[in-house]
Amino acid sequence: MSERETPIFDAVVRIDRLPASGRSIAVDANEEERAAIAEAMQIVSVESFVATLGIVPFRGGLRAQGKLDARVTQASVVSFEPVPETVSEDIDRVFLPAPRENQAPAPGSEIFIDLENDDFPDHIDGPEVDLSALLLETLALALDPYPRAPGESLDSLGISLGDAEEGPFAKLARLKGGDGEKS
């Protein structure tokens, strides 16, 4: 058995202790937590990481709605220089208990599936939901996959990709054609 990883910050909600009116979670990561987030995301640094979530009971599970605001620095894919980025993402996620495989649904029971919604609910096992994973996932999906400074390109660095005729196969074709032989 593998040990469960400890979350970077505490955002665990127990469904069985969630009041009917819901509750709020506010996360303002300290310096140590921001360093751990940067390491987990494999980016240069996280200058700020602030999230607010409203959690309400929803069909035996919960619904988390809120906002994540972060300022991060990534390395440019062109020059490897630091590139600052601001992330501001809305969060709306539903967590429902996992279906029991051995227990058939009650006869005549209804199952609600919204076919037009791309976000199917996340399944949970047990009475707790760790929303820190949701916040880290939201940040990871919001990050620019190819960060670079404005106007930065290989040409601005003086690096030429050259024409397709300068590749190894083009040189081979010239060598082959230079001998006058055709195969």
From TrEMBL:
Q: Which InterPro entries match?
A: YceD
One Pfam annotation, family name?
A: YceD
Q: Return the protein name.
A: Uncharacterized ACR, COG1399
Q: What is the lineage of its organism?
A: Bacteria, Pseudomonadati, Pseudomonadota, Alphaproteobacteria, Hyphomicrobiales
